């Protein structure tokens, strides 16, 4: 026997009823029985001392059929569970909607119960692991590919949507391209899962415009075609109350100036509510504003009048707010201009047409990797609220909306609050009933809001740091598996789901879609252009 083998044995009860006990090998050891000291092994090898070699395996029980919980008898023969018996051991035989989630070491398929992912009995996935080694994003995209192409969603798969935030590099901008490094052996692994290796079919890639570019050209480098720019008009910014997302830093919610944030946001919404927008621009108190810098200047004049003897307009500042709070708000608002001015504008022809459309493609990739952290928070918060509000307004859970968000600890930190965190909590706690499913990933689950992680029915763990593996957040992993998690190789994960009492070690196939520009193959060719991107 070796680690992770699925085994079975039978026992006949005194009543004549036979039960089957199934389990997974979790630990193995070999030793000399009869040796007292470590050095005795040399004497035993020379034939001086008598001893027998004993090999034993610790097996964790996964299932007892029927559920009569009696121990196996000593000396009962144990067999490797294969085929239908393996499905019984892992409780796959009772799963009606089986989602391919990975492979065992023997290339046997491992499934997820879709009921615990689509909101029927549970929802959400949380993935933890060291950056660059745990392959968190790769596994998240594999889950999406399996959802879209395995047939488990039936006819719903066509209308099911996916949303991915590309937060690091340009790795996710080529999901619609074949992977030129794919080999026939790697492609065979998809066949074991009932999948056909191919890139994602319907992919929309959007990126923020370059700063200072009047044509709003997307700010991407490796990919030159198939990328659309996106931004929000000033009218949308004011009308939809997006100002608080500019102040979504972890510590900001505890500051007094947040009162000014709410007052200014409410006044902006009221000011544009009865004014018709012209190509995304706003008209407030007779002034037409087309850029975010102009809007910030206008707000500053309302909060800090040019005449020092003139009092600020309380409609904008709110009541009982000190001058220090107003100045703190103005400083932070002014400092945001250089980070988000290309994202909030109405100085481009037909500005409303650049709005983000999450229904245009089956999978939408929102590239934010080049943005400042403050701008990243703004984009993530606004897009999450757009997706959440759309699902809430529809009133139905179908079709499903899957959201993949890496660096979850930045947007839902454990010890502070922000507008983004509140949205993520809404998704985690109410998304199941609305049909909006979060696939969140982070290096350290201990730094993420507990309720976000606790509401995830599916937990996935890749390579962990030794100190992190000892945290309470990984209590679902037995001690031996916690230790093994610190040495997992890329592409191997521990998968925990409610149907099984212990996590399973899985491997997932090499991506059939390009994960970087060097892997992107031209259509109809297995080779890449060596000069592309230079």
Task: Tell me about this structure.
This protein has 15 helices and 20 strands. By secondary structure, it is of the alpha/beta class. It has 3 domains: 78 residues, no CATH class; 273 residues, 3-Layer(aba) Sandwich (Rossmann fold), CATH 3.40.50; 107 residues, no CATH class. A 10-stranded mixed beta sheet has the order 11-10-14-8-15-16-7-17-18-19. A 4-stranded antiparallel beta sheet has the order 3-2-1-4, with helices on one face. Strands 5-6 form a two-stranded antiparallel ribbon.
Question: In short, what is this structure?
Answer:
The chain has helices at residues 40-45, 83-89, 136-149, 184-192, 234-239, 258-273, 292-303, 314-317, 323-340, 373-394, 408-411, 419-434, 450-454, 466-469, 479-485; strands at residues 6-12, 18-33, 52-65, 79-80, 98-103, 109-113, 125-128, 161-166, 178-179, 203-207, 227-229, 282-284, 287-289, 363-367, 401-405, 436-442, 458-461, 492-496, 504-507, 520-521.
